[in-house]
Amino acid sequence: MSLNFLFQLSLQVQHLPAGHNVALVFTRCILNNADYTPIGFSNPCNTTWTHQLAAAYAITSPLITMAENPAMLLEDERLKPVLPFIKTLPSVWDETIVLPGSSIGETAVLARRNGEDWYLVILNGEQSRDVEVNLDFLPLGRWKMLTVGDKQGESENMQVTETSLIDLNVPLRLPLQPGGGYLAKFSKR
Question: Stretch 51-80: mean pLDDT, rounded?
């Protein structure tokens, strides 16, 4: 068998619905660590690039292996803004909270802490939906937020936004595309 044939075969096998990743968070990964290969920008199937990135933050593995060609990560201009998220992906978490709005196979909404930084991780299944997230998981204080979200109507683009100061009393209202995702990093100011 040629390597090209095996690659083409692997592309056909990888067409799992977006809800599969969402379900994994609550099934196969329920006790934390799992052997899983996230971040497949070259072949995201029916998920967005943001979903692919958020899957790496939602599914914990002590040895994170990414399903992407390093040349694409380093040379594709659309991925340059999210490289800091890829380079600083924690391999362990100090705390994980499943937030309201989560539903097996439909939506995973997680707050995860590594050190003093908190992350909001959302994986969406096949249906578009709006999710409202209260930020009450964050300790009182001043926080800045760096987010990665889907560009509406585009599965292969992500929008990175930095907010210098957030109001903990105002919930985030997030529109999610089918197969979409969301990732936010909260750091103390």
Answer: 87
Number of domains, the chain: 1
Digit-coded pLDDT (tens) for 67-87? 788 888 889 999 999 999 999
**What per-residue confidence (pLDDT) applies to 14?**
55
C-alpha–C-alpha distance, residues 180 and 170, integer Å: 23
The two tokens of residue 66 are: 């990414």
Q: Give the CATH number, domain containing residue 48.
A: 3.20.20.70
Quick: pLDDT tens for 138-177.
Answer: 999 999 999 999 988 777 778 888 887 888 899 999 999 9
The residue segments making up the domain with residue 165 are 3-188
